[in-house]
Design brief:
single chain, about 325 residues, alpha/beta, Spore Coat Polysaccharide Biosynthesis Protein SpsA, Chain A, UDP N-Acetylglucosamine Acyltransferase, domain 1, 8-stranded mixed sheet, 5-stranded parallel sheet, 6 helices, about 30% strand
Length: about 325
């Protein structure tokens, strides 16, 4: 089974963490964010993941490596310019050529999730659908488009973002597509699968199915931190082994016995936390130094950042190699 994963975005909402690295390559607890998706896909029978890249593709390859990850073959393709969600899928499919299977998964690469893809694939096959959208129930659908279906799961219509706080089933960014759907995507230009392709399939083989599990877009500071705690506290299925619930200490980190770390915190490989310092509800990526008496709260510090002794870092994203003074 093949999966095309869209990883071309610039992650602007996570800047400055994403100034020099694409969001899918950012470390989430102990591995690149995208590794969670590859491992999840592998657990549902996917043996090749095609990564539709755009922003800093070489950094993404460095993070995940070439060849394969956890037994899943990795294929990288890079768009010459932004093609949109459908355009990127078509571009990746054209790069595969005859190697593209007649049925494949397509996914938004911004998600941390453990949704039941096997159920998605089974529903698609049972209904002989042309395309099937995975749905997810949220308490507040105001920022999402809603998908309306009949009792048999056929999509009837799409409702754009209403701004009204109410529960509903939203597009989860996970699809099963028949290869013939690619014929609906004009080549060589920016095309949205959500607004240009799926509406054309309404009444002509477009289905949807609610999926259960964990689902989150980690594209903001707050969601990145919440996803971290959800992994460490076992709310999402993963291969991570926390040091304690809500806490992860990486290899070769040096934490003073008088420092306060946690109860929620990630202190990654090679970090140093000085005497009487505090690291609370925060993530320190590789090689971060927190000076004695400093306080870090609700923040994410990129690789090599330095917090001077006595300095305060509160609810902030700190760039790679940046120094925070008093």
């Amino acid at each position: 089974m093949q999966a095309i994963v869209l990883v071309g975005g610039e992650g602007t909402r996570l800047r400055p963490l994403t100034d020099n690295i694409p969001k899918p390559a950012i470390t989430l607890v102990d591995r690149p964010f995208l590794a969670y998706m590859v491992e999840w896909l592998g657990s549902h029978g996917v043996d090749e993941v095609v990564l539709a890249c755009g922003f800093l593709p070489d950094r993404l390859r460095e993070a995940l490596g070439g060849g394969e990850h956890e037994g899943v073959r990795l294929t990288y393709v890079t768009e010459p310019e932004r093609r949109g969600t459908a355009g990127a899928i078509r571009f990746a499919a054209e790069a595969l050529g005859d190697d593209l299977e007649d049925r494949f998964l397509a996914l938004n690469g911004d998600l941390l999730t453990d949704l039941d893809l096997t159920a998605l694939l089974r529903s698609h096959e049972e209904r002989s659908a042309r395309a099937t959208i995975g749905l997810y129930e949220v308490d507040d659908a105001s920022a999402f488009g809603l998908v309306d279906c009949d009792a048999a799961g056929a999509v009837l219509s799409f409702t754009e973002k209403t701004g009204v706080v109410a529960p509903g089933e939203v597009n989860a960014g996970a699809y099963v597509l028949e290869r013939a759907v690619l014929d609906l995507i004009p080549p060589g230009r920016n095309v949205s699968i959500e607004t240009e392709v799926f509406p054309r399939l309404v009444g002509d083989g477009l289905c949807a199915v609610p999926l259960t599990g964990y689902w989150m877009d980690i594209g903001t500071h707050e969601r990145y931190l919440q996803a971290t705690w959800d992994i460490l506290e076992g709310r999402v299925a993963s291969e991570v082994r926390p040091t304690a619930p809500g806490l992860f200490l990486g290899d070769d980190c040096a934490v003073s016995v008088s420092a306060r770390v946690g109860p929620r915190a990630v202190v990654s490989r090679g970090c140093e936390v000085g005497a009487d310092a505090e690291v609370i509800d925060s993530v320190l990526l590789d090689g971060v130094t927190v000076g004695s008496g400093a306080r870090v709260s609700g923040s994410v510090l990129a690789t090599g950042a330095v917090v001077d002794p006595g300095a305060q870092v509160v609810d902030t994203l700190v760039a790679e190699d940046e120094r925070v003074g008093t």
